[in-house]
Amino acid sequence: MSTENILVYFNPNTVLSLKFMKKPPYCPPNRELQYVDETNLYYQMAKKYAEENSLDPAHKTGAVIVKNNLVIGEGANGSTFHVKNGCERKRQNIPTGQGYDLCEGCAPVNHAEQKAIADCLKQGNNPENADLYLYGHWWCCESCWGAMISAKIKNVYLVED
Ligand SMILES: [Zn+2]
Ligand SMILES: [Zn+2]
User: How many Cβ atoms from other residues are within 10 Å of residue 97's Cβ?
Assistant: First the structure.
């Protein structure tokens, strides 16, 4: 057992817990994913948004951005590209997190996190110090982390896989 897999997560919504986590395929230095219970209100809102708005029926993902207890942005993954063209990454059996440039439908700009940030900005809201809740995925890709860091999103919450 390697020590890098032992992480202590402090989740303000629940309790201090010691967990043996799977290491996400990508996580920027000095950042970490945080975990909530599936009953968390904002997680549930992200789930509902994904169920109603995702354009990727095989893998619905949703995100809500929350600041001062208000939802200031929402996003769901997918684009109409997959409906018309299928997925080039699936055809080539590309592993999760890789080859997003091979398929327009998988482009990170269509990921729930980046769609939620775009929605937030479009509504004239400021994502600085807001939290993002993600449904349907257990980690965030490098491109989405980049977008969240640029937008100064504070915490990323999801439910353990
Ligand atoms: Zn695709
Ligand atoms: Zn992403």
Answer: 13
